[in-house]
Design a protein that fits this description.
The protein has three helices and five strands; from the N terminus they run E-H-H-E-E-H-E-E. The protein is α+β, with helices and mostly antiparallel strands.
Length: 129
């Protein structure tokens, strides 16, 4: 397994969620992650955290960083420049949103908030070099 990472900043527009997903797949591929389910899970978490940053952040921009280390862990960091913190909510059956952080809680090894940055770690499973 190899270390790989990417850093990017973009305006708080929903079209950038897909860009972050593609960058995530590229970084995981560069690190040696081949399992499609693992890549899909990490992309899902990126989508949820970046979407939260775009919708709930206080700034016009979002910073995104993904790092995959040699220990087989991916670290996702999204800075929305907001003083608020994400909440794990209990969405009702008719609610259109409110499930994102529950997914992060379920799939991430750990997650939290440091300053204005929401982060989570995800085991990336079997890899090939």
């Amino acid at each position: 397994m190899r270390t790989a990472h990417a850093v990017m900043s973009f305006d708080a527009q929903s079209r950038h969620v897909e860009v972050a997903r593609r960058v995530t797949a590229a970084v995981l591929g560069e690190a040696g992650v081949r399992d499609r389910d693992t890549i899909g899970t990490v992309q899902l978490l990126v989508s949820e955290i970046v979407t939260n940053a775009i919708i709930h952040g206080d700034a016009n921009s979002v910073s995104f960083r993904i790092t995959c280390d040699t220990d087989g862990e991916a670290l996702i960091e999204v800075d929305d420049h907001s003083s608020g913190s994400p909440e794990v909510r209990e969405a009702g059956p008719e609610d259109e949103g409110g499930r994102g952080m529950r997914l992060v809680t379920y799939f991430a090894r750990d997650w939290g908030r440091k300053g204005t940055c929401t982060w989570c770690t995800v085991p990336v499973g079997a890899v090939t070099v």
